[in-house]
Specification:
56% helix; single chain; three-stranded antiparallel sheet; 500 residues; mainly alpha
Length: 500
């Protein structure tokens, strides 16, 4: 007999595991989320750049692939690769078309009209980009103009007859009709004879182009291609190789920074340790750092010439006063109880500096110098414009003046990569040099990547960061550059006008 009482299921319902929130105050994200965000921090700017460069909606220009020979002052003399505003492209087409109409009218009026064979030869050469894009003249020495003209003459006939079919850079219907019309006249002079050139006026090719971003925003693949060419192709006119420019820029930055360290580090420690040095040097350093360093350019050239010395001197001027003030403040952060204990044990002034002050502030001093090295890189472009333009800045200035921004962007990014990799390397070295100070500092990118692989791909929250008490009150960080990275317990000064 069945029990009429229904059985109740007391099994608790399955609850979905609550996901850890993305934002928690002073809590680290899981390693998997950290990896995603670090990757996105680099991918997102590249994605925005790619959208602006590749999506036609954002394009304002045409990048010309075929250009006509200017037949009057109304038609601009352009070459393939030049960019033109879309608003003007239709006007440009009408100007070239009007010139062709004039040629047809003159030939209709006088079928035996004779023009310039040189002008015709220039028109024939305008098909060279199409021939190069399709590999039709790969075996031709382009520096031999007779061989090049003969090959291009045959290209015109081959395209009209169907022997050459463009696989890339296809001709518009209008240009294909122009090629066939010119080939009918050129056929009477085949094969090509340098002494018997066609003189009947030929029609000009119509300009062709592809939708393109603005001149100042080349596509990423164009920048990569230009960078490879700049590093692998011998520069013209005995210009320096790209790696030589990189070495020249490194000498300027590191030379000025090391000179600043040589004087600024000892002086900063003395200012932070002795009130005599503090009152003697810090007020003027605090005043001098507000003077724009570039204004000393002409004075430095007059004093040191136009070579590398004034450039190194400018980096020195740009970093030295900040270094003195930052290191002086760092020396003051040392716990005074350590100094009092050393004095009670009989340490003199020399031993206090050597065995107490310097070892006590060494990790923070290392971080200050790492921050100031990044500050020194910001003076590179200004420094290399002083006197004779040299290094990477000279290349940027030269190519920017020619609107070759596909060659400018890689150099700008290269400077950023060198500075970033150097900074991350120095930050990673801090863990080996000062392991007792490790919990205080934000891990370097290298350390975080290594930690991710060691921990695996779990999505569990990371342990909260360890903290260690920081002795003393940090106070305002005078001399810290505006781009200084805040550090735990030692915030960067938001107002560079800190008092003495």
């Amino acid at each position: 007999m069945t029990d009429p009482t229904p059985h109740l299921d007391h099994t608790p319902p399955v609850r979905r595991k609550r996901r850890d929130p993305w934002m928690r105050v002073r809590r680290d994200l899981s390693p998997k989320r950290q990896r995603r965000l670090v990757v996105m921090s680099f991918v997102f700017p590249l994605l925005v750049w790619s959208v602006l460069a590749y999506v036609p909606f954002f394009h304002n220009d045409y990048r010309l692939t075929i250009t006509p020979e200017p037949h009057s002052n109304k038609v601009a003399n352009l070459v393939p690769g030049d960019r033109m505003a879309k608003d003007y492209f239709a006007t440009y087409l009408d100007e070239v078309r009007s010139g062709n109409d004039d040629v047809l009218a003159k030939r209709a009026e006088n079928p035996d009209i004779q023009g310039s064979s040189r002008a015709n030869q220039k028109i024939i050469r305008r098909i060279q980009p199409l021939a190069e894009a399709n590999g039709w003249i790969d075996d031709v020495d382009t520096s031999d103009f007779k061989a090049l003209d003969a090959a291009l003459f045959d290209v015109w006939l081959g395209v009209a007859e169907g022997r050459f079919t463009p696989a890339s850079l296809n001709l518009t219907d209008e240009n294909f009709e122009i090629v066939k019309a010119n080939a009918e006249l050129m056929q009477a002079f085949a094969p090509y004879d340098p002494g018997n050139k066609i003189k009947t006026p030929l029609l000009n090719l119509m300009p062709q182009g592809v939708s393109s971003s603005a001149t100042f925003l080349p596509a990423p693949h164009e920048c990569v291609k230009a960078m490879i060419e700049d590093f692998t192709t011998k520069p013209a006119n005995d210009q320096p190789w790209m790696y030589e420019r990189v070495l020249s820029s490194l000498k300027v930055v590191l030379g000025g920074f090391l000179l600043s360290c040589l004087i600024g580090v000892p002086l900063g420690i003395l200012c932070g340790s002795y009130d005599l040095f503090s009152k003697l040097f810090e007020p003027f350093s605090d005043f001098f750092r507000y003077m724009p360093a570039p204004t000393f350019g002409l004075l430095l050239v007059a004093a040191f010439g136009v070579g590398g010395a004034p450039k190194i001197a400018l980096v020195f001027i740009g970093t030295f006063p900040h270094m003195v003030l930052m290191i002086a403040d760092t020396a003051r952060l040392l716990d005074t109880k350590l100094i009092e204990a050393a004095e009670a044990l009989g340490a003199n002034r020399t031993k206090l500096l050597r065995y107490v002050v310097v070892p006590g502030i060494l990790p923070s001093l290392y971080e200050d110098l790492r921050t100031l090295l990044g500050w020194a890189w910001t003076w590179l472009v200004i420094a290399e414009l002083i006197g004779t333009k040299t290094g990477l800045t000279a290349f940027i200035d030269m190519q920017g003046g020619k609107y070759n921004f596909d060659r400018v962007y890689p150099v700008i990014i290269l400077i950023g990569i060198i500075g970033f990799v150097t900074d991350q390397f120095l930050q990673a070295m801090a863990y080996r040099l000062f392991p007792w100070e490790f919990p205080r500092h934000r891990p370097s990118l290298f350390a975080r990547i290594k930690g991710w692989f060691n921990r695996g791909g779990d999505d569990t929250p990371a342990d909260p960061p360890s903290t260690s008490p920081h002795t003393g009150s940090p106070g305002p960080r005078r001399g810290a550059p505006p781009t200084a990275t805040p550090r735990t317990g030692r915030p960067a000064n938001p107002n560079p006008a800190g008092g003495a």
